Amino acid sequence: MFIKTKPKMKKIATLISFFFLMFNCGELIPNPDDNPKNIKREKPNPKPQNEKVNDFAIVIHGGAGTILKKNMTDEKEAEYKSELEEAIRVGYSILKEGGSSLDAVEKTINVLEDSPLFNAGKGAVFTNTETNELDASIMDGKTLNAGASAGTKTVKNPINLARAIMENSPHVMMAGDGAETFAKEQNLEIVSPEYFKTEKRLNTLKRVIKREKEKTLNNKSAFYDADIKDSKFGTVGCVALDKNGNLAAGTSTGGMTNKRYGRVGDVPIIGAGNYANNATCAVSGTGWGEFFIRATVAHDISALMEYKGLTLKAAANEVIQKKVPNLGGKGGIIAVDKNGNMVMDFNTAGMYRASMNDKGELTVKIYSKN
Ligand code: ASP
User: Is the CB of 266 under 6 A from ligand 1?
Assistant: First the structure.
């Protein structure tokens, strides 16, 4: 009995040492004394899934909503496109020169905030009581640091305030009077509340209020009416990947027409309207903020990539084409991932948007196809 089991034990010992070797080394290392035919080689690594497609890249939006060609003149369309191009070229130059994605995002958004065409900075939409209350946020994908401001009425460029809060305060979000005091301390440009006002946005508010009375809509949906030409969203946002592999996202808005005083949307809520993480992507959203908050849109896209291994395109599609509309929400996002893949996805008729890759190729679009 003893004599019979001995060779078996030897076999078992050989097998054990074989497995030990295998699991310790992670791979089989060929022994030159072995017959090459008997050496099991690991298959070469499949092409890495995550290939770098752009060394740097930038994407912007100027809001999503009921933007229809039939409501747009050729001149207006050209005006929007040229403003988008002007803005994105500012960020592109910064990235091309080796500047940071944070600088590219901030400076690009400044151009859009200063333009009365968009619902951010000058040209912001009106609250129910005819004031302009601005929200903004910025996030650094490298450190996961973030800054946000809500409900300011006198800070000319809210994205600059968001960045100052991120870099020069121990806080992430500041609101109202306190945020404005901080802006003054930081020597940011302060303007009169009148600066933000435009005739066009005031007229939109009046139309929405009239409609509200006619339809006796409840307060929940009062600030979105697809039938009213200008009752679209119009937030601005920018996401960028720089040459050092750092991602950043920024979003700035006047919120939604006819919002009640004190209402804060998704834009300054980190993870809802804005998010950046070097491990995944940078996202900026635009749309009906209440739904973007409830669906934690921007972070959800990043999380689907991080925890489920989805591509940026698939993750954005999941959130924008399924999760948000399933709740009843509308809007879109722009995003860039750590490999320079760019996505512009929306479930509305249109979204003002533009992108530039590291070769300087520019895309500017408004409607679903062009
Ligand atoms: N998301 C913004 C808000 O709800 C509106 C927009 O995107 O235009 O405040």
Answer: yes
